[in-house]
C-alpha cells in the first residue's frame, strides 16, 4: 500500500512547506503530495487552496490589504486573498502558518518560519533527498480549481503543469508521478499530453466542478468506473466512500479494481477528530487515535494507496503488519 504524504507530514509541520515535505520523506513516505495553484505571473506554487489567508499571514500584511476580494469558486462564494492576484515575488514575502491550530497547536510553533514553495523547488528537494537516501521518492500533484482559473483568470493549469513536468523530465510513464484532480476535463486533456498515471478524485457528495450535471455517485457506478478507466489509472476516494455508516466495507475498492483502476483513499489523520468512534482513544479531539487499526482495515480491503497527514505512523503500522 503506497504511503502518500498528504501536503507533506502535515500532522507535524504547517502543510505545503518544504519542511513538511522533507519530514515526510525522512519518515519513509513513498510519495509527497503538493496541491498546486498559480501566481499572477504563471508560476506553480503549493497551497491547499488559491485563497491564502487560512495558511499564510497575508491577512496581517497591511501592504496587501487592498488585495482582498470575493470570488465564486466552484459554486461557493469565497472572500480572501488569492494566489492568482499575486506575483511570485509578492508571495515570497508571505509566511506559512498552521491551518488548524486548535487541533494541532504544536504545529503553530512553526508559524512564520517557512515560505510558499514552487513546484520546481519541491522537485529539487525530492531529487536531493533521493541522492541522500538512495531511494526513489514520488510526486503526487493536484491541480486545484483548473476550470475556475482558466475561465476567470485565463490561467491554463493543465498547460502550466505539462510544460513544467516536461522541463523537469517528469512526464514519462516510468517517472514516479501521479497527477490528480476532482475535475474530469483537465484529466482528459492530460491523458493526451503526458504519460504519467492520472487519478480521478471523488467525494462522498457533489460532483466535478466542470461537469455540474454529473455526480460523483454516478461516476462510481459500474458504467462510470469504466468511463474513468478510459482516461485515468486510479481513483482517489474519500474514506467515507470505502466504509458504510456502520463501518462495513462498501465494495467500492473491489469494483474499481475490477474496472482496472487502483484505489487510493484520503485522508488518514491521527487525531480523534478525524477517526471513526471505534478507533478513537480518549475524549480530546486532538488526541492520537488508533492509526494502526485504520491501516489494518484499509490493508484488509486491498486499498492500493493511502493519503495521510502522518506518514511516519502509517509506514510503521505497515511494517508491523508485514512483520506479522
UniProtKB/TrEMBL annotation:
<keyword id="KW-0732">Signal</keyword>
<dbReference type="InterPro" id="IPR030395">
    <property type="entry name" value="GP_PDE_dom"/>
</dbReference>
<dbReference type="InterPro" id="IPR017946">
    <property type="entry name" value="PLC-like_Pdiesterase_TIM-brl"/>
</dbReference>
<keyword id="KW-0319">Glycerol metabolism</keyword>
<comment type="similarity">
    <text>Belongs to the glycerophosphoryl diester phosphodiesterase family.</text>
</comment>
<protein>
    <recommendedName>
        <fullName>glycerophosphodiester phosphodiesterase</fullName>
        <ecNumber>3.1.4.46</ecNumber>
    </recommendedName>
</protein>
<dbReference type="Pfam" id="PF03009">
    <property type="entry name" value="GDPD"/>
</dbReference>
<keyword id="KW-0378">Hydrolase</keyword>
<feature type="domain" description="GP-PDE">
    <location>
        <begin position="1"/>
        <end position="318"/>
    </location>
</feature>
Amino acid at each position: 500500500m503506497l504511503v502518500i504524504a498528504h501536503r507533506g507530514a502535515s500532522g507535524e509541520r504547517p502543510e505545503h512547506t518544504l519542511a513538511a515535505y522533507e519530514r515526510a520523506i525522512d519518515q519513509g513516505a513513498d510519495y509527497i503530495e503538493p496541491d498546486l495553484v498559480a501566481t499572477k505571473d504563471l508560476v506553480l506554487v503549493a497551497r491547499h487552496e488559491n485563497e491564502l489567508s487560512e495558511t499564510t499571514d497575508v491577512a496581517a500584511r497591511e501592504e496587501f490589504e487592498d488585495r482582498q476580494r470575493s470570488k465564486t469558486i466552484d459554486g461557493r462564494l469565497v472572500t480572501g486573498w488569492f494566489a492568482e492576484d499575486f506575483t511570485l515575488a509578492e508571495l515570497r514575502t508571505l509566511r506559512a502558518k498552521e491551518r488548524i491550530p486548535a487541533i494541532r497547536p504544536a504545529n503553530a510553533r512553526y508559524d512564520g518560519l517557512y515560505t510558499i514553495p514552487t513546484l520546481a523547488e519541491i522537485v529539487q528537494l525530492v531529487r536531493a533527498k533521493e541522492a541522500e537516501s538512495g531511494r526513489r521518492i514520488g510526486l503526487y500533484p493536484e491541480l486545484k480549481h483548473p476550470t475556475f482559473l482558466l475561465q476567470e483568470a485565463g490561467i491554463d493549469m493543465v498547460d502550466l503543469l505539462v510544460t513544467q513536468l516536461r522541463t523537469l523530465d517528469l512526464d514519462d510513464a516510468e517517472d514516479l508521478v501521479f497527477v490528480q484532480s476532482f475535475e474530469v476535463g483537465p484529466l482528459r486533456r492530460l491523458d493526451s499530453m503526458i504519460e504519467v498515471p492520472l487519478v480521478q478524485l471523488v467525494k462522498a457528495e457533489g460532483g466535478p466542478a466542470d461537469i455540474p450535471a454529473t455526480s460523483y455517485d454516478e461516476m462510481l457506478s459500474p458504467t462510470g468506473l469504466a468511463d474513468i478507466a478510459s482516461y485515468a489509472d486510479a481513483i482517489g476516494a474519500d474514506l467515507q466512500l470505502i466504509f458504510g455508516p456502520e463501518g462495513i466495507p462498501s465494495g467500492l475498492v473491489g469494483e474499481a479494481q475490477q474496472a482496472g483502476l487502483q484505489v487510493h483513499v484520503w485522508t488518514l489523520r491521527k487525531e480523534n477528530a478525524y477517526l471513526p468512534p471505534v478507533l478513537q482513544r480518549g475524549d480530546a479531539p486532538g488526541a492520537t487515535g488508533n492509526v494502526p487499526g485504520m491501516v489494518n482495515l484499509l490493508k484488509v480491503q486491498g486499498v492500493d494507496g493511502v493519503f495521510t497527514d502522518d506518514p511516519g505512523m502509517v509506514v510503521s503500522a505497515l511494517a508491523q503488519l508485514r512483520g506479522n
